[in-house]
Amino acid sequence: MSGAIRVLLADDEAMIRAGVRAILGAGDGIEVVAEAADGREAVDLARAHHPDVALLDIRMPRLDGLAAGEEIVRTLPGTAVAMLTTFSEDAYVARALGGGATGFLLKSGDPHELIAGVRAVAGGAAFLSPKVARHVIDGLGARRIGREAAARTRVSALTPREREVLGLVGAGLSNPEIAARLHLVEGTVKAYVSAVLDRLGVKNRVQAAIVAYEAGLVTDDEARPAPGAAR
């Protein structure tokens, strides 16, 4: 990505916005171009400024961050959405990812994690806070077993090369890294990744990485905290 990463920051607490703005300001090439105090204002400012990333709190007045994120994804395809919150419950994570968000960050996380997450989603990648990633991947008891069986069924429809690419996506490798690992050109890898997302019926690399985990294509030792890179 050329130029500074332009960020819209939305949180109903001014002190939180100030703190996040200061953290992002410490990261080279990141600029907060607009701030919103509620979800409706966030949508309006996103339309006005067309930021690279909309960083949204979940619990906000007028329109919550989840609904605001869905509207931004639907109407501004050039803006990536990442949630920044203190909450990591299943329902929040599932709705955020299902609505097209490609980042889910916790306010309690390390500042470097916040900067890395903004950079990742701005570049077309996906980023989950490590705590959120573990929460999503682990699941709960029988639900996890059922998801694993379903994931293996979905993955069985892929070609051997597509499964290999999916496993590397799940391990957090970028397209250039996958290309180097498999001795392919980057354009070929991008085509494989697009085909994998389409065949699995998922919207982004976070969702593909979850399928890879559940299907047993990647281990914890192989994985990075932030799966994904540009599609």
Structural features, described:
The chain is an alpha/beta fold. 54% of the residues lie in helices and 13% in strands. The chain has helices spanning 14-25, 39-49, 65-75, 90-98, 111-122, 130-138, 141-156, 160-170, 175-182, 186-200, 205-214, and strands spanning 5-10, 30-36, 53-56, 80-85, 103-106, 127-128. A six-stranded parallel β-sheet has the order 2-1-3-4-5-6, with helices on both faces. Helix 8 (160-170) crosses helix 10 (186-200) and helix 8 packs across helix 11.
What is the compact description of this entry?
The chain is built from eleven helices and six strands.
Q: From the alpha carbons, calculate the radius of gyration and give it in angstroms.
A: 17 Å
In the sheet with the most strands, the strands line up as 2-1-3-4-5-6
The string of secondary-structure elements, in order, is: EHEHEHEHEHEHHHHHH
Number of helical runs?
11
Domain Response regulatory: 6-122
Modified residues (4-aspartylphosphate): 57
Keywords: DNA-binding, Phosphoprotein, Transcription, Transcription regulation
Organism: Streptomyces longispororuber
